[in-house]
Amino acid sequence: MEIKEILMQAIQDAAEKAMAEDVFPAGELPEIVLEVPPKKELGDFATNFAMQSARAFHMNPRKIAEVLTERIHGSWLDHIQIAGPGFINFYLKADVLYDTLAQAMAQGSAYGKLPLKDVPKIQVEYVSANPTGPLHVGHGRGAATGSALVNLLRAAGYPVESEYYINDAGNQIDNLAASVNARYLEKFGQTVAFPENGYHGDDIIDTAARIIRKDGDKYLHMEEKERLTIFRELALKEKLAALKEDLAAFNVHYDVWFSERTLHPDAVREAVEVLQKNGNIYEKDGALWLKSTAYGDDKDRVVIRENGVPTYLAADIAYHRNKFERGFGTVINIWGADHHGYVCRVKAAMAALGYNPDHLKVLLLQMVSLYRGGELVKMSKRTGDSVTLAELIDEVGTDAARYFFIMRSLDSQLDFDLDLAKSQSNENPVYYIQYAHARICSIFRQAAETGLEVGPVPQLSLLTDATEIALIKKIEAYPEELERAAADYAPQRIARYVYDLASTFHSFYSQCRIMGVDQPLAAARLALVGETREVIRYALAILGVSAPDKM
């Protein structure tokens, strides 16, 4: 049993003993939550259990804390301190920390993952941008956070499947074909009215040029309807391939690529029929309306227009029904903040279909602002439009871009400093973390040159310096941080944790020598930094950031 579990059990036993002695009234205990205090002088672990149980026990929190601490004993405990309104701070004996480090080392790579949970599979769908042009930096933030969330949930033991929803049906694909068609005809000197809702990016011109290089004027004398049909497929295939290439360069890979076309017409019709049968759709002015106000929406929504054409909502209803029909227990969508008004109507539709709307989690992505030299960067150098993800990768690299996107929570606007992301200094957080990993690799190379090895049983009890103890505690906190970050869908917690771990290591490195001290102490310190290196690597892998051996 890990020390945290031992502590939680000790608190529960003390509360139950107090109830048996009629000091506390009998009843259900509140959840016991343990945290690592922000300052080492506040102990190794702390709990607010006394404050959480004040209502249940009808007693002042400090008095509850006193009752509990009188009944908590163990060979692992040095002393307990009650602080503030009723916090209980636990100070452990040093050998407990050494045992924890030894257990982490013994687990190897398993320390970077929690046991598989017996829960229904989770689906995470993210990015899902229209395949009509290149991804921009806003998509990049969703891609980095979404893929990191998938990695995080898997590391925390959740069964997860990632998915990209290909918007390959509807007007946007027709507009794509029409745009390529116009540029194609222009290349042959024809005067063409560019589509009103067409796409003006240079990538459309490039697509038309590639078609001509491959097939020349093969399509020039076709009926326009036939040419548009061909260009629709050619352009869609090309744009989707480019999109996948950009995502792969950004360390983003999906388990499933789901085509919207597969929903039309059968899945859309079936979803509407289910809603009609259960009384959640009515007809008005020749259209079919969802009774979404019955489930919390501000107004009812059209799902089938009077001309018989489904709305975007109809396809989304069919798609989300499909997700739950595939057996996912929780469905997580990462959407842009401009979709905030859409959340309620999709949840309403799921409730109308008989699903629990709380099982659909929508995380909203706030905007990204790029800065260079203190000035806001708005436009792409190549397209004159939004800065593309590929351009960002070219400028700052995948590692820096991913870390900067992930280090802030999705619901906060992100100011991305391009100059900082490129700098090789301690002010750049990703460089600071990667340098810690590279420095440890360098230490091991030096150790190998001198014949220093960790050995089968390093004397960890020799690690008594305050910076050594702090580093052990930080390593010990990793599984807890993993669990909490996953529960909160918060990969930014891992970004912050690994930065703090690197900082703790750098403090240790400036204080404690490894080479040139007695062999047993050197071996113990080598073991400590070795486990630090492993945890840095585990955490960076969750973020999709590399852990270089040299810098």
Could you characterize the architecture of this molecule?
The protein has 551 residues and is an alpha/beta fold. The protein has 20 helices and 15 strands. The strands form four sheets. Strands 7-6-5-11-12 form a five-stranded parallel beta sheet, sandwiched between helices. A four-stranded antiparallel beta sheet has the order 1-2-4-3. Strand 13 and strand 14 (375-377) form a beta hairpin. Helix 7 crosses helix 9 and helix 18 packs antiparallel against helix 19 (491-511).
Structure summary:
By secondary structure, this protein is of the alpha/beta class. Helices cover 50% and strands 13% of the residues. It has three domains: 3-92, Arginyl tRNA synthetase N-terminal domain (Gyrase A, domain 2, 2-Layer Sandwich), CATH 3.30.1360; 118-422, Rossmann fold; 429-543, Isoleucyl-tRNA Synthetase, Domain 1.
Assembly state: single chain
CATH topology label of the largest domain? Rossmann fold
Structural class: alpha/beta
If you average the pLDDT, what whole number results? 94
CATH classification, class level of the largest domain: Alpha Beta
If you compute it from the alpha carbons, what radius of gyration comes out, rounded to the nearest whole angstrom?
Answer: 29 Å
- Regions with pLDDT < 50 over 5+ consecutive residues? none
Biggest sheet, open or closed, and with what strands and sense? 5 strands, parallel
- For the biggest β-sheet, the strand order reads 7-6-5-11-12
Share of β-strand residues: 5-15%
* Number of helical stretches of at least 4 residues: 20
Tell me the distance between the termini. Answer: 39 Å
> What's the shape?
flat
Let me know the number of strands.
Answer: 15
* Helix content percent band: 40-55%
Named at the architecture level, the CATH assignment of the largest domain is 3-Layer(aba) Sandwich
Q: Which homologous superfamily in CATH is the superfamily of the largest domain?
A: HUPs
